[in-house]
User: Fold these one by one.
Assistant:
Number 1:
Amino acid sequence: MTMTGVHAAMQAWLERTVPDDSDPEATLAYRWFGHVRAVLEAESDYLVLMRIETEPARRAQGEASAVLAWLTDCCDRHGVTLLGQANADDGSGLSQQALMAWYARHGFQVDDTHQGQPLVWYPHRPVS
């Protein structure tokens, strides 16, 4: 896997999404994908889905699942591993257990060997 794959996958994400400029003081670079906003960061040889949130009125309609499916397909096309941070921040969205189950339904596996919040990773990618 090369930086080219990560760069290409991140470029596809940037082209498909629009910046969330609602909070100029925000420390995370949220981007909108329809009614879902997310933070995706590029590391040297993988991408990290830092946050994913659906507008409250649009929850439970499969929109975040559709975004995640698009993102995993994009990572597969570019041979990039996708990590996800699985930490529920507040009571307005999924609980921690429900969030972990949501990632699992989308082919992610839990890696709780790290200190802090568990990470999940999407292992299905083409062989380089």
Note: The chain is about 30% helix and 25% strand.
Number 2:
Amino acid sequence: MWGITVPVSPTGRRKWPDALRAKAVQKILAGAGIRETAEEIGANKSLVVLWVKKADTSGKSPAFVEVVAPAVQRLAEPPRENDRETTTGPSCRISIGAAATEIPLGYPADHLVEVLRAVRSAQ
């Protein structure tokens, strides 16, 4: 397959060489379909999906995101609801790669939960 020999054990199991795995993953990341690539090399689709997942987690995206809360500063008077001018106190900054999001003081918790769920599902 693709000029790479795939050894077969006496039991009939194939030992997929790293070079062939890398080439299949490279082809898929370049836009080829997983099913088509798996059929082309004679591999099970779920096995090829595992190769892609392993290659994708090799340092391209963090396995976790560290969140550091800012030091709490006391305001002279408490901020009023829906008054953005008085919410100049602490905030939360979430950075993932080159993207950064600033969460202001008083931001609705239910909205923040939705944002964090969306970020998590995108990984």
Note: The beta strands are 92-96, 99-103.
